[in-house]
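Bumping my old thread because nobody answered last time. Still need a sequence for this structure:
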């Protein structure tokens, strides 16, 4: 009985901590930006499979290419 109660308490604690962490606002200076996320979502929904194909082509063009060529310019334009 004690073991079951301890397991339940640990599970509940873990769920509370991970849920709180996942829903917390990004720290100052982080890469989080709602406008960027909305733009990515719209592009994925609009372009469908072509969105993934384009992302894959850029990502395989060289090390660090996707963040450098796509992500940073988009964030610079959309995130103040």
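Sorry it took so long. Here it is:
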């Amino acid at each position: 009985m004690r073991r079951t109660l301890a397991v339940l308490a640990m599970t509940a604690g873990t769920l509370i901590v991970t849920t709180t962490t996942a829903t917390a606002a990004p720290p100052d200076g982080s890469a989080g930006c709602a406008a960027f996320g909305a733009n990515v979502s719209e592009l994925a929904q609009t372009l469908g499979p072509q969105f993934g194909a384009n992302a894959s082509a850029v990502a395989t063009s060289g090390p660090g290419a996707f963040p450098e060529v796509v992500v940073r310019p988009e964030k610079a334009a959309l995130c103040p």
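Residues 32-80 form one domain. Let me know if any region looks off to you.
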